[in-house]
Amino acid sequence: MGGIRRFATTGSLLAAAASVLALVLFLGSEVLLDDPVIHARSTADLRLDLEGIEAERDLAIERIAVRAISNGRLFGTQDHYLFVSDDFGETFVRKGVFPKLDPGLLERVRDRVARHPAVRRIRGLPGPMNVVVLHSGTVLVFYDRIYRSPDGGERFIPLVTPVDSLYGPAPLHAVAVDPEDRVFYGEYLTGERPNTVRIVRGTEDGTRWEICHTFGPGEVFHVHSVSYDSWGDRLLVATGDRDEESGIWELDPECSGVRLVSGGDQRWRTIAPLFTEAFVLWGSDDDRSGSDIWRKPRGTKELEHLHRIGNPSYDATRLLDGSFVVSTTYEPDSRFTSVFDPEPVSELWISRTGETWHRLDRFAWVEEIHWWGRARARALLPWSDGSSPYLFVVPDATDDGFVTYRYRFEALPASGASHAAAEAENGQREGASRPAP
């Protein structure tokens, strides 16, 4: 029996040694499989003439999700890494990693395995959705916690803040940065009603965080987004989801309270409002009777109906030339889907002026089951300062896989100054009166 035990012990030691050797070889292969630079693939697989808007889907950026655009620089994510591009998506260079906070030995080993290029390729995780860039160049990432990079994304520091126990922002471009580099987001709760919902403010270059406002129990269900309206020089908070919970609020940046601009029905249930000097525009998030694109002229609470889009809208953006882009999300389990049975696709809509809308592209839903339910087909649009002449779209839960598409536009009809030039002019009008909210 003693000999058998010795043999078993020896076998166990050999198995353990083999496992350690396999782990070492696996981790050692990281250099061979690493992908510090990702090159986009030319596609030219979609060309459209949309009554004067000539559009082409010209690039596919595989295994990168573009999350933010600031001063013409693109910030993308892959798993726990940040990538940047200075050539509008032609190439992406890997920068910093979002590190664990004080990990133990076992957690460090697990994290090393999870970050291995082979594992990242198999898992295909896009990583965090909320990435914002301050005017100082500091990059903030909202994931399992807030990560801060004071050097433009080269190195990230996981923050410990008084708001760590709160729910984070919605999984989209839901975070606002004002001209003083104050950062705002609201809690995106999805539990049982009634909820107490907080709005959080970050100051001192993203190092100090505090609760700025609290919605009382039952006042709103959750915060969809906080947006900075440069023309009105104000912060707008979008809330949902029931009629009485849906509205647009103006938030005092000094945290003295909020003021309801308007709300009370599904027309005001929005996520990503867009701003001009004359009006505010959005696609509604109406998952009951279907969604539309609405416009609210400044100085009035009246809404103007612009276009029917059907499926709810989560994302919207503006391009350098001032064009508006709105996308829709297919929700397989919503009331709208069960009643109206819409086509299971996410769609892109574009307009040069906001008046006439054209469908630019569509992405077919692929059923994915998660712990929270069936995934929704969506065309995510990055947080942007309007400095890109290209449109970047990240399809999610579609048959496109893990990719970002770039769209190029030509022969757009001229109609005044570009959005970026107008924004610059707006910021330089010292003493000029602001348009009415």
Comma- or semicolon-separated keywords:
437 residues, mainly beta, 6-stranded mixed beta sheet, 6-stranded antiparallel beta sheet, 6 helices, 34 strands, 15% helix, 41% strand, disordered C terminus
Task: Give me the secondary-structure topology.
Layout lengths: L1 H27 L1 H4 L3 E3 L1 E10 L2 E10 L2 E6 L2 E6 L2 E5 L5 E7 L7 H10 L2 H7 L6 E4 L5 E4 L3 E4 L7 E2 L17 E2 L5 E4 L10 E7 L4 E8 L6 E8 L4 E7 L6 E5 L6 E6 L10 E2 L3 E5 L7 E7 L6 E7 L4 E4 L5 E4 L1 E2 L4 H6 L4 E7 L6 E7 L4 E2 L2 E2 L2 E4 L2 E2 L6 E6 L6 E8 L8 H10 L9
Q: Your description of this structure?
A:
Strand 21 and strand 22 form a beta hairpin. The chain is globular. The chain is mainly β. The protein is built from six helices and 34 strands. The strands form eight sheets. Strands 1-7-6-5-4-32 form a six-stranded mixed sheet, with no helix packed on it. It has a domain at 78-160. Mean pLDDT is 87; it is low at 1-8, 20-27 and 412-436.
Give the mean pLDDT: 87
Write out the strand line-up for the largest beta sheet, numbering strands in chain order. Answer: 1-7-6-5-4-32
Compute the separation of the termini in Å: 87 Å
**Total count of helical runs of at least 4 residues:** 6
Contiguous low-pLDDT stretches (5 residues minimum) are 1-8, 20-27, 412-436
Largest beta-sheet characterization: 6 strands, mixed
Helical content class: 10-25%
Global geometry? globular
